[in-house]
């Protein structure tokens, strides 16, 4: 709310010095009101200009930054004999130490971005990249930089033509050197004209120069709340006595509970509200078609808990759990082609150990080629949650969100210990199907065929990913977005 205007003064009652004092009071109040209005006006809204001579730099201060971002929109100048640089200085100190993020526009219109550290007047290029971007005179180019931290300092840059979607950071640098620039410093808009025959000066218009300080991060939640699942915390609790059941079990009665059994056959669930607890399911011999040690194609509310699924007769046809509408808690699944194969809605896998799939050189479901072994393969389904598990030892992927039979609109993969595979987590889709996944607070081990690929999300996958780190170092892991 603006300040209240001063009350009207009865001038007719004042004489001489009193009148002058009254007038002074009014003027002070009016100046204060005008100042208040100016302070809230968007000072960066107007178009401004910087002129740089041949081989020189022109700058203008716009504020101060410690951690945060700064950006400005530059209009590409017309005819010129040399390259023009458009950018921002971050954390500039009194002695000239600072970072500069820039977009260099060649005479051809090609754009290159770079991150530079200055020690006084001496520049060191920390990183640069030529973009697949060309601009013309009169077009507007956005340049944005970000700076954060102290040990190390992270500096990022990106540039894009007005009207395009804002890209991801095109260069990011972690500066751990003794000359890194820490703390707060000035922010300046920068224009530079490179020295070249015939180059005299260039005037660049810019607008919307702004600084956005970083918000103070919320306290980071613990990645995992409980112990890492292992063979001692999953499967049949120690000391449980089991009754041997020879042969397959087909469950047709709602509410059936299979408890404390050593099942030497397969289990097929055809009724709702079934529970399998404190048991071992070993399967049988002679499987001729794909099946799970436990298979449930749709009956609601199957619960598998404190159970081990380990085939006594491993086969190219045998998975661990197949189907949908089930919850698996504290299960230990090992020695199958796929540990868990999800083919529909409403699945939760939690607090479990899924490990050591079995590879075969010839698989009839892969055209006679080798098996594609995944700890968890997701063909389709909504309401899918994979949380607080240890998942490792698959030849293909620890988690494969394939979406090749239907949409996968809300897959959640969080608080797991993940390792192994070609890539460890892969998210993809087939044809017109879509997949949206939230992958958060996971720890990744080092064992995978492609070292730089803990998470691969193909273009077109909608992915929310945060706080995924290396189990060994605690550092954030990378996301591979290429096919």
From TrEMBL:
Q: Which residue ranges have biased composition labelled Low complexity?
A: 220-229
Q: Which domain of life is it from?
A: Bacteria
Concerning InterPro entries, the annotation shows: Pectin_lyas_fold, Pectin_lyase_fold/virulence
Region annotation (Disordered) ranges: 204-241
Q: Sorted alphabetically, which SUPFAM superfamilies does this protein's record hold?
A: Pectin lyase-like (SSF51126)
Against Gene3D superfamilies, the record matches this protein to: Single-stranded right-handed beta-helix, Pectin lyase-like
Q: What is this protein called?
A: Right handed beta helix region
Q: Which organism is it from?
A: Microlunatus ginsengisoli
């Amino acid at each position: 709310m603006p300040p209240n205007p001063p009350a009207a003064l009865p001038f007719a009652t004042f004489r001489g010095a009193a009148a002058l004092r009254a007038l002074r009071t009014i003027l002070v109040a009016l100046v204060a009101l005008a100042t208040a209005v100016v302070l809230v006006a968007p000072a960066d809204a107007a178009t401004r200009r910087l002129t740089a001579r041949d081989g020189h730099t022109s700058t203008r201060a716009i504020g101060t930054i410690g951690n945060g971002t700064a950006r400005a929109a530059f209009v590409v100048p017309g005819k010129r004999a040399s390259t023009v640089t458009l950018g921002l200085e971050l954390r500039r100190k009194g002695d000239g130490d600072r970072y500069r993020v820039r977009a260099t526009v060649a005479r051809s219109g090609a754009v290159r971005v770079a991150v530079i550290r200055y020690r006084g007047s001496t520049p060191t290029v920390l990183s640069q990249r030529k973009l697949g971007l060309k601009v013309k005179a009169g077009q507007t180019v956005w340049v944005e930089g970000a700076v954060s931290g102290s040990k190390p300092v992270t500096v990022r840059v990106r540039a894009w033509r007005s009207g395009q979607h804002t890209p991801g950071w095109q260069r990011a640098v972690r500066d751990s050197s003794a000359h890194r620039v820490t703390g707060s410093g000035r922010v300046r808009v920068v224009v530079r004209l490179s020295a070249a025959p015939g180059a005299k000066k260039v005037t660049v218009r810019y607008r919307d120069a702004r600084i956005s300080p970083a918000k103070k991060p919320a306290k980071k939640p613990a990645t995992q709340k409980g112990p890492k699942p292992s063979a001692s915390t999953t499967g049949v609790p120690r000391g449980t006595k089991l009754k041997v059941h020879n042969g397959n079990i087909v469950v047709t009665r709602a509410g059936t509970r299979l408890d404390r059994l050593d099942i030497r056959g397969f289990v097929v669930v055809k009724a709702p509200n079934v529970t399998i607890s404190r048991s071992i399911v070993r399967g049988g011999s002679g499987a001729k078609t794909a099946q799970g040690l436990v298979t449930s194609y749709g009956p609601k509310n199957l619960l598998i808990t404190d159970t081990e699924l380990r085939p006594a007769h491993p086969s190219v046809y045998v998975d661990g759990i197949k189907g949908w509408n089930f919850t698996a808690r504290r299960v230990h699944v090992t020695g199958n082609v796929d540990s868990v194969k999800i083919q529909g809605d409403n699945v939760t896998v939690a607090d479990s150990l899924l490990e050591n799939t079995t590879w075969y050189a010839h698989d009839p479901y892969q055209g006679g080629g080798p098996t594609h072994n995944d700890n968890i393969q997701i063909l389709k389904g909504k309401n899918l949650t994979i949380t607080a598990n240890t998942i490792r030892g698959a030849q293909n992927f620890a988690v494969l969100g394939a979406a090749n039979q239907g949409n996968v609109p809300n897959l959640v993969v969080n608080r797991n210990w993940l390792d192994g595979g070609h890539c460890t987590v892969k998210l993809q889709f087939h044809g017109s199907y879509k997949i949206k996944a939230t992958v958060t607070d996971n720890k990744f081990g080092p064992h995978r065929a492609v070292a730089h690929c803990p998470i691969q999300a193909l273009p077109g996958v909608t992915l929310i990913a945060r706080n995924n780190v290396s189990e060994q170092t605690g550092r954030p892991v990378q996301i591979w977005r290429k096919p």
